[in-house]
Automatic annotation (TrEMBL):
InterPro entries: Pol_omega/Rpo6/RPB6 (IPR006110). Coiled coil: none annotated. GO terms for biological process: DNA-templated transcription. GO terms for molecular function: DNA binding; DNA-directed RNA polymerase activity. This is DNA-directed RNA polymerase subunit omega. The keyword Transcription applies. GO terms for cellular component: DNA-directed RNA polymerase complex. Keywords: DNA-directed RNA polymerase, Transcription. It holds the Pfam family RNA_pol_Rpb6.
Length: 105
């Protein structure tokens, strides 16, 4: 997943209900699938952020180093500006990029 090439909006917008439920015929089922994908995306983003922040971890507890670490602040600001995982999942759903299967069939 390339976070730099996301097409999802960064603010909340209203989606057409019919576009979301067309693939499965049931809005509730579509929401469950989108929700599970949003959880996966959230885990990916969280792990990526933790890996990048681990690079800045220091063994010494100097207050000067904590307040002057601008690179760490820039990384955090970048991840704060990303679209929410739910919006990313909805955009993937609308672009037919989400694979799902029904286990009861």
């Amino acid at each position: 997943m390339n976070l730099k090439e996301l097409k999802a909006p960064s603010n909340t917008i209203t989606f057409n209900k019919e576009n979301i439920e067309n693939k499965v015929g049931n809005i509730y089922e579509a929401i469950v699938i989108i929700g599970k994908r949003a959880e996966q995306i959230n885990t990916i983003i969280k792990n990526d952020l933790n890996q990048k922040l681990d690079e800045f971890a220091s063994n010494s507890d100097s207050m000067d180093e904590i307040f002057e670490n601008r690179e760490q602040i820039e990384v955090s600001k970048y991840y704060e500006k990303l679209p929410k995982p739910t919006l990313i999942a909805i955009q993937e759903w609308l672009d037919n990029e989400v694979y799902f299967r029904k286990t009861d069939e």
